[in-house]
Design a protein that fits this description.
With about 55 residues, this protein is an alpha+beta fold. It has two helices and four strands. The longest helix is centred in the first third of the chain and has 5 residues. The structure holds iron/sulfur cluster (2 copies). One iron/sulfur cluster (SF4) binds next to helix 1.
Length: about 55
């Protein structure tokens, strides 16, 4: 399991600094999470102003 960042992302960058395993980086149109690195902690979702990070199905 991993979190995904959806299209609501406004590229604020707040989540990147919160990730304990540095799984988040700036992508082409939004920030992206490396699923292989994500430990499913939810920290990114708690700081995101628009609720873009969500647990993957
Ligand atoms: Fe990083 Fe946790 Fe978000 Fe995964 S759920 S991307 S480990 S902050
Ligand atoms: Fe995008 Fe939310 Fe991360 Fe900001 S905190 S870069 S809006 S996913």
């Amino acid at each position: 399991m991993a979190y995904n960042i959806n299209s609501e992302c406004i590229n604020c960058g707040a989540c990147e600094a919160e990730c304990p395993v540095s799984a988040i980086s700036a992508g082409e149109s939004s920030y992206v999470i490396d699923a292989a690195t994500c430990i499913d902690c939810g920290a990114c979702a708690s700081v995101c102003p628009v609720g873009a990070p969500n647990p993957a199905e």
